[in-house]
């Protein structure tokens, strides 16, 4: 399993958000790219271990909403986070709607 995983839920529709491109970046630039699966998850985003430091997940949400003809205020969502423990798993879920989003550290 990847050190960092994510899951996107379309909160407006109450279902997983499939097909969202996601980029994981670190201190030295891009680490990995993936697309959310039918369950809205990216279980294989990057390596099994990452060094302690600052990281970023960027979700191309505009593409997701455009595919369904839905207007959105956020063409992309960027989540900056810190890996403080190189041994822990980091799960970063995104709850998404056309005009709002939230995120948290999951398990």
UniProtKB/TrEMBL annotation:
Residues annotated as domain Transthyretin/hydroxyisourate hydrolase: 4-106
Enzyme class label: hydrolase
Reactions listed under catalytic activity: 5-hydroxyisourate + H2O = 5-hydroxy-2-oxo-4-ureido-2,5-dihydro-1H-imidazole-5-carboxylate + H(+)
UniProt keyword list: Hydrolase, Purine metabolism
Domain of life: Bacteria
PROSITE patterns: TRANSTHYRETIN_1, TRANSTHYRETIN_2
Keyword RNA-binding: no
UniProt keyword annotation of Ligase present: no
Assigned EC number: 3.5.2.17
InterPro entries, per the entry: Hydroxyisourate_hydrolase, Thyroxine_BS, Transthyretin/HIU_hydrolase, Transthyretin/HIU_hydrolase_d, Transthyretin/HIU_hydrolase_sf, Transthyretin_CS
SUPFAM superfamilies: Transthyretin (synonym: prealbumin)
GO molecular function: hydroxyisourate hydrolase activity
Subunit-structure text: Homotetramer.
Family designation: Belongs to the transthyretin family. 5-hydroxyisourate hydrolase subfamily.
PANTHER family: 5-HYDROXYISOURATE HYDROLASE, URICASE AND TRANSTHYRETIN-RELATED
Record function comment: Catalyzes the hydrolysis of 5-hydroxyisourate (HIU) to 2-oxo-4-hydroxy-4-carboxy-5-ureidoimidazoline (OHCU).
Protein name: 5-hydroxyisourate hydrolase
């Amino acid at each position: 399993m990847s050190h960092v995983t994510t899951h996107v839920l379309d909160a407006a529709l109450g279902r997983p958000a499939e097909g969202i491109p996601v980029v994981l970046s670190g201190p030295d630039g891009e680490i990995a790219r993936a697309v959310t699966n039918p369950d809205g998850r990216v279980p294989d985003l990057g390596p099994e271990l990452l060094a302690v430091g600052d990281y970023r997940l960027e979700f191309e949400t505009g593409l997701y909403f455009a595919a369904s003809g839905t207007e959105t205020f956020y063409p992309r969502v960027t989540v900056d986070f810190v890996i403080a423990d190189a041994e822990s798993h980091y799960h970063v879920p995104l709850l998404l709607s056309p005009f709002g989003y939230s995120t948290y550290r999951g398990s």
